[in-house]
Amino acid sequence: WPGNGSALDLVGRQFGILCNGASFSAGKVASAFRLDGNDYILVPAQTNYNVGTNSSGFTIEFWTKPDSLLASGVLGWAGGVRVERNSVGGTGNVLRFFVTSGGTNFVQSTSIWPNANSLVWTHVALTYDRSLGQARIYVNGILNVATTVGTNVLTTASDFYLGQAPGSPGVFLGQLDEISLYCRPLNPQEVYEVFAPGSAGKC
Fold first, then answer.
1. Rg of the chain over all Cα atoms, to the nearest angstrom
2. Among 102, 109, 152, CA closest to 130
3. What is the pLDDT of residue 90?
4. Alpha carbon 1 to chain centroid distance?
5. Contact yes or no for 62/176 (Cβ under 8 A)
6. Cβ neighbourhood burial of 196 (10 Å; 0-12, 13-18, 19+)
């Protein structure tokens, strides 16, 4: 979902639904989704979005520019795999990637947005390797943290949301750009190669 004036998925050719006034503005790569803390994009469930069933694992990657230090949902599947901003030290400064159920079910980044000066465009890649039962968070092309979360993966068969994550508190305030799903865990070099072109984009 490049967010270039529509909610079209360029690969699957399916349209998301702009809800509660979700719009577009200048982004990291051309334009991006603009979310004001009340709106979101709903993407109805599709077989090719059900990446959690892949035998090797999956990847979610995107550019984000928060406009506040508030904790909130960011994106994810209803009742399933999701990404949220969480507060450590009083602000929504870290990311949590919820992947599995039972035991240790998420991986949490170190501080990414500690203050207002840090609210800049940031590339995030979230990978899950089923063979290792391991989830990883990459920030700006570099591995930030890896955690063993097991293999009982939450659903990715439900509706997919951008700007919120059902099950997480709050709605995202800021911009999301170039959101992509992959049916395997990208390796560190691949993650860096997606990040490195910056405003030129992936293709």
1. 15
2. 152
3. 67
4. 12
5. yes
6. exposed
CA quadruple 139, 142, 148, 151: dihedral sign: positive
How far are the Cα atoms of 72, 144, 163, 169, 186 from residue 150, in angstroms, in the given order? 25, 19, 27, 24, 18
CB atoms under 10 Å from CB of 37, counted, come to 17
What are the beta bridge partners of residue 29?
A: none
d(CA 37, CA 171): 5
Taking CA atoms, 201 is separated from 80, 109, 135, 147, 181, in Å, by 28, 24, 25, 29, 15
Which residues have a Cβ under 8 Å from the Cβ of 79 and sit 6 or more positions away? 154, 155, 158, 166, 167
DSSP-assigned beta bridge partners for residue 108: 96
Q: In whole angstroms, give the CA distance from residue 109 to residue 126.
A: 10
What are the per-10-residue average pLDDT scores of the chain (203 residues)? Answer: 93 91 95 94 96 97 95 95 89 94 94 93 98 98 98 97 88 96 98 96 74
* Closest C-alpha among 194, 192, 59 to residue 128: 59
For residue 73, the model assigns a pLDDT of: 95
Q: Name the token pair of 56.
A: 């090797």
